[in-house]
């Protein structure tokens, strides 16, 4: 059993403390993690996998390991003197009413609302001039708040609804059908729905997608044949008809179906990975509709956004990396007949529809710009947004004359605005009453050069008047993958960090979608190292420009961002004081063998593709690059024991490697949330506890005996 202790003498922040002082070290006794003799051979190279046994999430041995690791971790966290102060401040700041954009279904207007500290948002509704009433309260679904509402869909007339629930954060869902007026359940619960929405066909039934339940563990066993079903109301789920995906020829990892607003067409997407899809359609006005191919390759991301009769409008990045809107007739919908309606620009397009118009949001260096077009492709107006940041929600039904959009940035809590589609005028509909003053903070966008000279944008947010003396506690957050764009948005937890004098920095790394498909591809497969280089260069920029220094820098990311943190800290352990990898993809040689992980191969490639790809992946895989005798930063790995997206074995193995090989005095701990998944639907109470632990660990390992800004804590206590 290996022992380490924290440094007894810690570097203290000069702005907060005049004199240095010492404290009693916290000794960590790590549990022993047994090793096995498992070895895999890739292209003639033997690769040991001594912690393979931790992949068995159903074994008593793994369960015991989780308990002992948590006991060790919480034993450490319990000794952090200001952890409870952080939790209290998070609760206080979190405790304000939050409202989602209203939407009309039948005779009611519905909206999501949280009164402050409710574990899950509640769905309310009211008739025009009527009283507000609760429609669905997910807080009643389970005693501990870990069962969440993960989808809600109404029939076109609003008379019926179906909703999906997740238990313990799992991606496997249950479907419940209700009469919308009475709110009574009308038939048996559907089970085993995964990676799916619900799309109604009239009042007869709806389409949904799922996999056959795998043999072995439902949390980690491989799932790779997605199927689209139609559920006819009044019939058992066992009789649900497979619409697409049931044959070897139709085998795809991700299949989805959605019905057009006029209910005349069913559109089906089919993908083998997280990027690129085939596209099919069925004419639902026919008695036995045939499957019609729109697009029979996966070389683009293409979907139908709307239709007018037989005229189809599609959003695509086919021969347009930044996306465009095209139009085609349903009688001959293949690409050679597409005509540009809203051409590609130098900025990435996201399109929505509402009130008989297109609304195109463009990312200009990750900042929103919104244009309104008519259905002939004529520009109607640019929507003058409330400020510089991220706008969302531009869309609604065809008959809507007004809808709601949201606006936020890193230091401005999200507000809602009611938009008139004909005049372009809008008014603030709802503004949060939060104990946080955005005017005290500022965001600035900078551009820095990565290792190969590529210019990368980064937004840095902090309290006005912050002295750039190299001693500001800083979180560098990143993702860099799967065409995901990180745009400015407000976060309560980041507000608490910045209240304490913290700097929050977010670079837009390659692998993301901020600059279109080319930017995405530049961070995939044999280009994946570009993402890590971009992140490392961001850290170096913050240090070189005196925002922070190594002693006050923490790096953080989740999922693919957890991989980012794991790769960065193993490549440059000297660069940061704290590493916070969350639900990360850490074993890159085996990620594709779990659940739907093989679908990520578009971004990563796999260790089985070729010897070149194997060697490249092994060169950065976090689990395989923890080296004996290296001083790693203080590390708090976080995961959930029910994560069936990125299975917790990734984090288990990485933590075990760090605990065995850490040569320095910094702690390497793992915090495993029980009865929790990849993150979506996590109860507010659990989220607050998690961030109190994460921020407490971070400040403590940056050398703080008390929080940097005690005045804030005193103010809210008073």
Automatic annotation (TrEMBL):
It catalyses: Hydrolysis of Pro-|-Xaa >> Ala-|-Xaa in oligopeptides. It is an enzyme of class 3 (hydrolase). Residues 31-429 form the Peptidase S9A N-terminal domain. The keyword Endoplasmic reticulum does not apply. It comes from the Bacteria. Residues 488-698 form the Peptidase S9 prolyl oligopeptidase catalytic domain. Its EC number is 3.4.21.26. Transmembrane segments: none annotated. Gene3D superfamilies: alpha/beta hydrolase (3.40.50.1820), Prolyl oligopeptidase, N-terminal domain (2.130.10.120). The keyword Protease applies. Keywords: Hydrolase, Protease, Serine protease. SUPFAM superfamilies: alpha/beta-Hydrolases (SSF53474), Peptidase/esterase 'gauge' domain (SSF50993). PANTHER family: PROLYL ENDOPEPTIDASE. Belongs to the peptidase S9A family. This is prolyl oligopeptidase.
């Amino acid at each position: 059993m290996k022992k380490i202790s924290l440094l007894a003498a810690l570097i203290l922040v000069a702005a907060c403390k005049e004199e240095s002082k010492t404290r009693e070290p916290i000794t960590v006794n790590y549990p022993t993690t047994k090793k096995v003799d498992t070895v895999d051979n890739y292209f003639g190279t033997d690769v040991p996998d001594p912690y393979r046994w931790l992949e068995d999430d159903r074994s008593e041995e793994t369960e015991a390991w989780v308990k002992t690791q948590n006991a060790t971790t919480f034993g450490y966290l319990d000794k952090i003197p200001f952890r409870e102060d952080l939790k209290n401040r998070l609760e206080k700041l979190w405790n304000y009413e939050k409202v989602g954009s209203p939407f009309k279904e039948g005779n009611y207007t519905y909206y999501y609302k949280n009164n402050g500290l409710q574990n899950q948002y509640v769905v309310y509704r009211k008739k025009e001039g009527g009283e507000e009433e609760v429609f669905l309260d997910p807080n009643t679904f389970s005693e501990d708040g870990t069962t969440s509402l993960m989808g809600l869909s109404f029939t076109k007339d609003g008379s019926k609804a179906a909703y999906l629930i997740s238990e313990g954060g799992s991606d496997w869902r249950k479907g419940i059908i209700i009469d919308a007026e009475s709110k009574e359940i009308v038939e048996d619960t559907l089970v085993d729905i995964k990676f799916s929405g619900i799309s109604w066909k009239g009042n007869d039934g709806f389409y949904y997608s799922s996999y056959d339940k795998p043999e072995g563990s439902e949390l980690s066993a491989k799932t790779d044949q997605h199927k689209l079903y139609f559920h006819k109301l009044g019939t058992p789920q066992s009789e649900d008809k497979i619409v697409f995906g049931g044959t070897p020829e139709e085998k795809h990892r991700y299949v989805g179906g959605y019905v057009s607003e006029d209910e005349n067409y069913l559109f089906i997407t089919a993908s083998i990975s997280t990027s690129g899809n085939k596209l099919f359609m069925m004419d639902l006005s026919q008695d036995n509709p045939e499957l019609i191919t729109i697009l029979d390759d996966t070389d683009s991301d293409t979907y139908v956004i709307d239709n007018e009769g037989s005229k189809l409008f599609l959003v695509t990045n086919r021969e347009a990396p930044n996306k465009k809107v095209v139009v085609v007739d349903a009688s001959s919908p293949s690409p050679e007949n597409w005509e540009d309606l809203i051409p590609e620009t130098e900025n990435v397009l996201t399109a929505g529809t509402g009130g008989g118009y297109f609304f195109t949001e463009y990312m200009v260096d990750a900042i929103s710009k919104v244009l309104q077009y008519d259905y002939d492709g004529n520009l109607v107006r640019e929507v003058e947004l409330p400020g510089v940041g991220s706008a969302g929600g531009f869309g609604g039904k065809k008959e809507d004359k007004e809808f709601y959009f949201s606006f936020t940035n890193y230091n401005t809590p999200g507000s809602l605005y009611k938009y008139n589609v004909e005049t372009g005028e809008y008014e603030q509909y709802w503004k949060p009453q939060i104990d946080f003053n955005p005017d005290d903070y500022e965001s600035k966008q900078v551009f820095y050069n990565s290792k190969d000279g590529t210019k990368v944008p980064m937004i840095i947010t902090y309290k006005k008047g912050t002295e750039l003396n190299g001693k500001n506690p800083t979180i560098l957050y990143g993702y860099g993958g799967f065409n995901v764009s990180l745009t400015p948005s407000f976060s309560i937890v980041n507000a608490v960090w910045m209240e304490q004098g913290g700097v929050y920095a977010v670079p837009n790394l390659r692998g993301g979608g901020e600059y279109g498909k080319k930017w995405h591809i530049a961070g995939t497969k044999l280009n994946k190292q570009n993402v890590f280089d971009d992140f490392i260069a961001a850290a170096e920029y913050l240090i070189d420009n005196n925002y922070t220094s190594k002693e006050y820098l923490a790096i953080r990311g989740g999922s693919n961002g957890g991989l980012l943190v794991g790769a960065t800290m193993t490549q440059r352990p000297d660069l940061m004081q704290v590493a916070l990898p969350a639900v990360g993809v850490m074993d890159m040689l085996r990620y594709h063998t779990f659940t739907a992980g093989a679908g990520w191969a578009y971004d990563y490639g796999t260790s089985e593709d070729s010897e070149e790809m194997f060697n490249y992946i092994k060169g950065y895989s976090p689990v395989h690059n923890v080296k004996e005798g290296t001083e790693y930063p203080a590390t708090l790995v976080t995961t959930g024991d029910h994560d069936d997206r990125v299975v917790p074995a990734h984090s288990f193995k990485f933590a075990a490697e760090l605990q065995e090989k850490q040569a320095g005095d910094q702690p390497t701990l793992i915090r495993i949330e029980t009865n929790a998944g990849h993150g979506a639907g996590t109860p507010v109470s659990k989220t607050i506890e998690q961030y109190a632990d994460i921020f407490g660990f971070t400040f403590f390992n940056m050398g703080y005996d008390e929080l940097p800004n005690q005045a804030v804590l005193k103010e809210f206590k008073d």
